[in-house]
Write a structure and sequence with these properties.
elongated, 157 residues, five-stranded antiparallel β-sheet
Length: 157
């Protein structure tokens, strides 16, 4: 009969090598995904979306007041081109998403600077990632600004 004994030092060395290899593999996967995946904050639930808006300083409804599925058009008119300028100022670019399906989640905003009613925040989500958004007044002659909370209203769109 053949008996083999393994010393604990050998097992610890093997486990250490496996652990280092696993860490390197996970780091490679993380870097690969960051380079390949489109930039954007992951907002996989309505709670994540509301928390994101609260982090920006907005007091918003816990649940969206409207959710719409949209297709970002392949061909843009002047309105889409102008809207994308606002998105570019915020670090988003809808140009990458032409022809793709997205959802627009609309939240009521309660703490806009001049306490106006009918202020909403729109989040454009594609594959659970934030790809754009705005804060706007839905009244006639309203305004539109980026998602960041400012003390004064931004220019209209």
């Amino acid at each position: 009969m053949f008996v083999k004994t393994i010393k604990i030092k050998k097992i610890a060395r093997i486990l250490g090598i496996i652990l280092v290899a696993l860490i390197i593999a996970l780091a490679a996967v993380y870097v690969f995904n960051r380079v390949i995946a489109p930039s954007g904050t992951v907002l996989s639930s309505e709670a994540d979306q509301a928390a994101f808006l609260k982090e920006l300083g907005w007091k918003v409804s816990e649940k969206p007041i409207d959710v719409r599925s949209v297709i970002i058009p392949q061909e843009w008119n002047d309105v889409y081109a102008e809207y994308n300028k606002l998105q570019l100022q915020q670090g988003f670019d809808l140009d990458k998403y032409r022809g793709k399906n997205a959802e627009i989640y609309t939240y009521e905003v309660y703490n806009y600077g001049d306490s106006r009613p009918n202020i909403v925040a729109n989040l454009i989500i594609c594959d659970s990632k934030l790809i754009g958004g705005d804060v706007c007044c839905t009244e006639l002659g309203g305004f539109m600004q980026g998602l960041a909370k400012a003390e004064t209203t931004a220019g209209t769109l």
